[in-house]
């Protein structure tokens, strides 16, 4: 439920009501039945915010893996989400100007779909509605956590809302503040940052022919280009473009006239879906690999982009954060049942230990894919030719690649 004024004391406070913070709050309620913990979510942007205001729920679309579908199913949100998603039945990976092509199909992997594309605003609306209607979760928005201070027994938080400042206490703070974290800076939590010198250019785009639920990932001389299938709207065959370009090309491409951009895209993507008939508003996102050096402290755990921000090439950022969420929620549920303190290092270290393998594997998979497929040096071109061919030809490799893409690689 939405509130105007917070109480003085909570068991758990989530800083950031983006995709990860709200998913976590919903998952925790589902795990513990909702009645035994007091939970507050603090979000800086208004929930009724219009276009592209709240960073998590802007104009982008997200490819949810099959594993994430199972997670949303487990926490009772899939039924509502399933009306808003476009299934990915086939993934088509190719390399412009070079041989080597691989296709992954849902039938081969015995699932209804390899993944699902959801528009971030629609995912946001489902998550926010769930929070709003849940008596167990309080949400205050717009409100900003200005500072957190560890005390001997809990965390003290200063929250600003308009002219008011509230001081509250929590046993555990879940920091889901996104990639630019003021709180981490205050606490001296450093990050390892590797700038890819690339931007992701995003736009909704329409084609002459229907996509038939195929997602395309194409590696081009300017960087990986993905077209994710979207439901058609107003008779248009829509897809979502996620195009990685070098930072120094980003402004030029964003400012390009429609016909020049259409030509450039057709040249990179080819004629698979016929002519491009419409290109919507364009947005650019700088891309880095950014990993927090500490994910936990007594009474504090980092979740989502604040813990690890990944390149979108493999669509793994939110999917990994959802798997982290479920492992954390399961450990917190155990702590509640066994009357352990939620913020104790035993509980939090257990979570980190359980998720470490998945995090390392996903980060490495994404980083290597980015580097191999964003580079036209002869060695890298050869590596990806062989990579695509071997994925196509060697069943265990193919299965491994598909499982990672489907969010099942940690099993
Ligand atoms: C172009 C692009 C495409 C992507 N595609 C995919 C994909 O297909 N699949 C996938 O799995 N992932 C994808 N990702 C990654 C995914 O978008 C991120 O992993 C996800 O958005 C992280 O969500 P978050 O909640 O951690 O952070 P954010 O989305 O940044 O949300 C943080 C929230 O915290 C709030 N906040 C910040 N500071 C405070 C404060 N002090 N007090 C209160 N509130 C605060 C902000 O207002 C915001 O709402 C993509 C990323 C990009 C850039």
UniProtKB/TrEMBL annotation:
The yes or no answer to whether the keyword Oxidoreductase is present is: yes
Q: Which Pfam families match?
A: FAD_binding_3 (PF01494)
**A GO molecular function for this record?**
FAD binding
Question: Which InterPro entries does the record associate with it?
Answer: FAD-bd (IPR002938), FAD/NAD-bd_sf (IPR036188), UbiH (IPR011295), UbiH/COQ6 (IPR010971), UbiH/COQ6_monooxygenase (IPR051205)
Keywords recorded for this protein, A-Z? FAD, Flavoprotein, Monooxygenase, Oxidoreductase
Q: Which cofactor does it need?
A: FAD
Every copy of the FAD-binding domain together lies at 10-339
UniProt record, GO biological process: ubiquinone biosynthetic process
- Supply the PANTHER family for this chain: 2-OCTAPRENYL-6-METHOXYPHENOL HYDROXYLASE, UBIQUINONE BIOSYNTHESIS MONOOXYGENASE COQ6, MITOCHONDRIAL
Report the family membership.
Answer: Belongs to the UbiH/COQ6 family.
Q: What is this protein called?
A: FAD-binding domain-containing protein
Native organism: marine metagenome
């Amino acid at each position: 439920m939405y509130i105007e004024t917070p109480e003085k004391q909570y068991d758990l406070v989530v800083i950031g009501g983006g995709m990860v913070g709200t998913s976590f709050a919903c998952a925790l309620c589902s795990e513990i039945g909702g009645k035994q913990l007091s939970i507050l979510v603090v979000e800086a942007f208004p929930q009724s915010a219009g276009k592209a205001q709240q960073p998590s729920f802007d104009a982008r679309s997200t490819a949810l893996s099959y594993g994430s579908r199972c997670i949303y199913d487990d926490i009772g949100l899939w039924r509502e989400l399933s009306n808003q998603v476009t299934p990915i039945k086939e993934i088509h990976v190719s390399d412009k100007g070079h041989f080597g092509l691989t296709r992954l199909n849902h039938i081969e992997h015995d699932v209804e779909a390899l993944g699902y594309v959801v528009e971030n605003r629609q995912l946001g609306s489902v998550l926010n509605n769930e929070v709003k209607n849940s008596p167990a979760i309080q949400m205050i928005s717009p409100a900003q956590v200005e500072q957190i201070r560890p005390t001997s027994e809990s965390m003290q938080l200063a929250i600003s809302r308009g002219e008011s400042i509230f001081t509250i206490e929590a046993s555990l703070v879940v920091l889901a503040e996104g990639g630019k974290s003021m709180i981490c800076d205050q606490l001296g939590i450093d990050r390892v940052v590797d700038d890819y010198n690339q931007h992701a250019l995003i736009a909704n785009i329409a084609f002459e022919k229907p996509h038939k639920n195929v997602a395309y990932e194409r590696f081009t001389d300017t960087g990986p280009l993905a077209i994710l299938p979207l439901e058609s709207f107003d008779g248009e065959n829509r897809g979502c473009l996620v195009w990685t370009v070098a930072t120094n090309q980003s402004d030029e491409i964003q400012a390009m006239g429609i016909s020049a951009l259409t030509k450039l895209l057709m040249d990179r993507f080819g004629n698979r879906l016929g002519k491009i008939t419409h290109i919507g508003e364009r947005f650019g996102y700088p891309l880095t690999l950014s990993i927090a050096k500490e994910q936990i402290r007594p009474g504090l755990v980092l979740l989502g982009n604040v813990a690890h921000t990944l390149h979108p090439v493999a669509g793994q950022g939110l999917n990994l954060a959802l798997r982290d969420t479920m492992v954390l929620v399961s450990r917190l549920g155990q702590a509640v049942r066994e009357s352990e303190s939620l913020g104790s290092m035993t509980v939090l270290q257990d979570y980190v230990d359980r998720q470490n393998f998945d995090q390392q594997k996903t980060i490495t998979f994404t980083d290597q894919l980015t580097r191999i497929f964003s580079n036209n040096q002869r060695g890298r071109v050869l590596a990806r030719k062989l990579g695509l061919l071997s994925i196509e030809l060697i069943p265990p490799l193919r299965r491994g690649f598909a499982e990672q893409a489907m969010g099942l690689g940690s099993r």
